[in-house]
Every structure is written in structure tokens, then in C-alpha cells.
Amino acid sequence: MKLFQKIIAAIMLIAFSATIASAAPTPTNKKKITPQGQYLTAAEAYTELKKHGEKTLFIDVRTQYEVEYVGFTKMIDKNIPIVFKTDKKWDKKKGRFSRISNKHFVKDVVKALKAKGLTKEDHIIFMCRSGSRSVYTSKLMAKAGYMNVSTIVDGFEGGKDKKTKHRTKNGWKNAGNPWTYKLIKSKMYIR
Q: Where exactly are the structural domains of the chain?
């Protein structure tokens, strides 16, 4: 009987370890740590969505221009930008057009949850370009009481290659996950 218990314990330990190993590690950069502590690589998110997509809300938080010109995945439920680009103001420090926060972000996510028939307890996955804005969105959702939220740590385009400075390391596109330039109006953010 003790041998049987040891075998069961070993199987459970292996299964538990496999579950832990399938999630991206906690980021070392403190700015990328979320209150929920749930992190996925783009490849892991794809697998998660294939298995549990009907009980998961997948939100792309990039600007409409990023989605249009860089591409998107049809797997998202909705594009809800956390910021908008404006041509009315210049960001001198960053040398680009300024960004304006989406003041309706949390409300828009809640609306998307309800539209899919999901609740506060269901899983939400956020994806941005490289994994920074999705951290911010996870923090906003935590303040609103949403704790089953994951961020895709490598984003849609992934990290920059040190030599070329292009985003060719990891990310949704570089993981070989499905994506396209052809937009689906019902998934786009139109206000």
C-alpha cells in the first residue's frame, strides 16, 4: 500500500511540476510584475486559448494603428487600446506623437467580458507589443478587483534583437502563432 501511495504522490508531483513549468517565470524587472502574478509567453497563451478559449477573454491592448499596420491575431476577442496616439501633441522626451490614456479601459473590458458571457472570475489575457502595456492593464484590473488576469510577457512582436534592433525575438508573431493583416471590424476598437 505504501508503494502505491508513493507512486500516486510521484505522479501528482510530476503533474504539478509540469503545470508550473508551462507558465512563464516571474519577470526579474520589478516594473513588469503584476499583482496577479500570472505570466504567459505568447506560445503558452496560444495553447491556453486553444484549450480554454471559450472561458477566456483575450484582449489586445495595442493602439488601432499598431493593430492595422503590424497585424493582429483573429484569436483576440477585442482590441481595447490602453492608450491612443494623438497628432495634436508632441512628446519631446520620447521624440514621438504623444499618447493619451483610455479612460474607459476597465469599463470596456468589463463590457467585453459580459458580451462573451463571462464573469469577474473568468480568465483574462492581455497582450501588447512587447509586454509592458499589458502589465499596466493588469494593474488597472487588479485595482478594479479582477485577479484572474495574465499578461503575455513577450507581447505580439517580442523583444529586440541586440544586433539588428528589430523585434525578432519571441512574441506572438515570432512564435509562429496565427496572425494576419486583415482586420475584423467586430474585434476592432471603434468609439
A: 25-187
